[in-house]
Design a protein that fits this description.
- By secondary structure, this protein is of the alpha+beta class.
- The protein folds into 2 domains: 119 residues, Thiol Ester Dehydrase, Chain A, CATH 3.10.129; 157 residues, Thiol Ester Dehydrase, Chain A, CATH 3.10.129.
- The protein is built from 7 helices and 12 strands.
- The protein has a 12-stranded antiparallel sheet with strand order 1-2-4-5-6-3-9-12-11-10-8-7.
- Strand 10 and strand 11 form a beta hairpin.
- The protein starts with a helix and ends with a strand.
Length: 291
């Protein structure tokens, strides 16, 4: 209940900052607080961002993160802090690699390897955003869509997430209006937050987990309110291409090439001001009642 009381008394942005500001236990060992969630399980984006924050603290500031690959191994408990053990795998002339184990009750709940690189010149190209993606300022927010619904998850989505998330052309919170296996989502912080440059990448990792599984759900007409549906992140990969500012709108283009074997595979591209800033891949468990 302590986590819920803090959740009710602090703004989502304050909670985000406190979650990402880790306590150092020893040279390569850190501790982070868990955000309250209505279902009692740690949000995957939170533990992934904390793992990246811990790894970043052991790398020289001249080497920003360029990729991460993580596995969600066990559900975390929001009423407990998370210990983050960082293993230094390599510090080369250009690249550094770190392994992070996120631990609760002496068991690993998330495991990640991340890679960092000095800034280097070289060939540069990117794809562009596709199609008409709408004006995020004209799209409805989660607060507008869900704020009047008396349900813990609806109230959390409406009021407690530190990011403003707006779907185009429509959301899948309660129903699916368009069953295409792709969707676009606009994302930014609820209010401006002062972060060091490396923390913007970490905050982006946090936000990247919110909606990435939705295009696979959408393809089968499955909303988050679908009775008996169970979904959970299994793994997450992310590549950071260019600097990002999470205080400004980012376009998150998402598509699902396949669902099979109770698994849902999804890919995402994140753009800001027309620049491709990150790419994402995630597979999740998806179980739907037969009837």
């Amino acid at each position: 209940m302590q986590g819920k009381r803090a959740h009710m008394n602090q703004s989502p942005i304050t909670q985000l900052r406190q979650t990402l500001e880790l306590t150092q236990l020893d040279e390569n060992r850190f501790q982070g607080k868990s955000l309250w969630m209505p279902h009692g399980r740690v949000f995957g984006g939170q533990v992934m961002a904390q793992a990246l924050a811990a790894a970043t603290k052991t790398v020289d500031a001249s080497r920003p993160v360029h990729s991460l690959h993580g596995y969600f191994l066990r559900p975390g408990d929001v009423d407990q802090d998370i210990v983050l053990d960082v293993e230094i795998l390599r510090d080369g002339r250009s690249f550094s690699a770190r392994r992070v184990q996120a631990i609760q009750n002496e068991k690993v709940i998330f495991s990640m390897i991340s890679s960092f690189q000095i800034s280097e010149a070289g060939p540069d190209h990117q794809i562009s955003p596709s199609g008409d993606n709408g004006d995020p300022e004209q799209l409805p927010s989660a607060k507008q869509l869900l704020g009047d619904i008396d349900h813990p998850s609806a109230q959390y989505w409406a009021h407690s997430r530190p990011f403003d998330i707006r779907h185009h052309p429509d959301d899948i919170y309660l129903k699916v209006g368009n069953d295409s296996p792709q969707q676009n989502v606009w994302v930014k912080t609820l209010e401006p937050v002062d972060l060091a440059p490396e923390m913007h990448a970490i905050a982006l990792a946090f936000a990247s987990d919110y909606t990435i599984l939705e295009s696979g759900l959408r393809a089968h007409g499955i909303s988050w309110a679908h009775k008996g549906m169970a979904s959970a992140s299994l793994d997450h990969a992310m590549w950071f291409h260019r600097p990002v500012n999470v205080n400004s709108w980012m376009l998150y283009e998402q598509h699902s090439p396949s669902t099979q074997g109770s698994r849902n595979l999804n890919f995402g591209k994140i753009f800001q001001n027309g620049q491709l800033v990150a790419s994402v891949a995630q597979e999740g468990m998806l179980r739907v009642p037969a009837n």
